[in-house]
Design brief:
This protein is α+β, with helices and mostly antiparallel strands. The protein has one domain. Helix content is 23%, strand content 13%. A four-stranded mixed beta sheet has the order 3-4-5-6. The protein has a two-stranded antiparallel sheet with strand order 1-2. Strand 5 and strand 6 (128-129) form a beta hairpin. The longest helix has 9 residues, at 103-111. The chain starts with 9 loop residues before the first helix and ends in a 24-residue tail after the last helix.
Length: 164
């Protein structure tokens, strides 16, 4: 068993070119309840990958990312950080494409408005900015304006509700 315990959602949501595994489909080498069947021989891309939740577990100081509710198999998403632009991408399970709009994911996004948040449903090629910081980052990177149209940012009705 790996440091991930029984969580294997990255084995579904992430693209793994070395295994010719598309994003959004279970890897043929994983038992979703037990873990990777080729763990000792897994590709380097798998060896080097750590979701933001797993990274947080290794840090000494407590933060919201350490909560068990943000473990990918619990929140139905894998959060990935980008070293290039300090953004966070929420790779959504296609079975739960709106999980980021409620619960623990929505509270996380709301509590960190300065972080650029991007959401992508695994298996699709499009992503969208889901907060103002994410939209600004897209603009700065010169992304095609169609990718960041107004409906790519939460409207007031879609935004996570503030906790009372």
């Amino acid at each position: 068993m790996s440091e991930c315990g029984t969580c294997t959602l990255c084995c579904k949501l992430m693209y793994i070119p070395e295994l010719d595994k598309p994003a959004g489909e279970w890897c043929k080498h994983v038992d979703p309840q037990k873990g990777c069947k080729i763990y000792e021989d897994r590709p380097n891309v798998c060896r080097g990958f750590e979701c933001v939740w797993l990274q947080a577990q290794k840090r000494e100081r407590d933060n919201m990312m350490k909560t068990a509710d943000l473990r990918p198999n619990k929140c139905k998403a894998v959060i990935v950080s980008s070293d290039e632009n300090d953004s966070l991408t929420i790779k959504m399970d296609p079975v739960h494409p709106n999980a980021y709009k409620k619960g623990v994911l929505a509270r996380l996004i709301e509590s960190t408005p300065k972080l650029p948040w991007i959401v992508q449903i695994a298996g699709t090629s499009t992503a969208k900015a889901i907060n103002e910081s994410g939209q600004q980052l897209c603009i700065e990177q010169g992304l095609v304006p169609k990718s960041i149209e107004a409906d790519d940012v939460w409207t007031e009705d879609e935004a996570p509700k503030k906790r009372e």
